[in-house]
Amino acid sequence: MLSSIDIPASKSLTLLSNYTKTNIRSNVITIGKRKKYDYISYLYFELPLIPANMEVYSAEIVLFKTGNSLNEADNYYWIYPLLEDFSTYTNYYNRPNYESSLGMVFSTSKDKIYSQINITPIILQWINNNLSNKGLTLFGRSETAGVITYGSALNKDKYLVPFLRMYLKRYPDNCCIKTVPISCKYSILPPIGKEKL
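The structure corresponding to this sequence follows.
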């Protein structure tokens, strides 16, 4: 049986390639290309503790379109896990690196008011401690990737805040929980009060 939890984004910001010394922290995030300028956005979700008797089955993030993006033509964008943190002082010149081997393409649809992106491989890397959770970056890689805006972590309308949805699978009650083998040295001592023969 699967259960799910929704985790709203706790941080977000956007960088613009011709706005190089600062960042944009507003009620929306923007990604894509407009003329020769790039929009790059970042999101952070604080992961919950996963109970020992459960495992992550799948995970996705849901982004809600805003403004003119509701009528934006179908397009393709990229999402990657970050290798470095982002902050109030992140700008286009010092933007964080990302793990290129875990990049994933996602599409937008003119018929939908949201984008739903399966990021299960990324989440499993975080959960299994193979990669630290520094957040995600989203951007367009081709000249045809038009600009699209989504609600940000700072949006006052809670229905537009991005969220991470994790589906959890519970182990059967009679199933053994995963264990880690531990090696150790030991010695047998004589009982207290009895001398060695």
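The chain has one helix and eleven strands.
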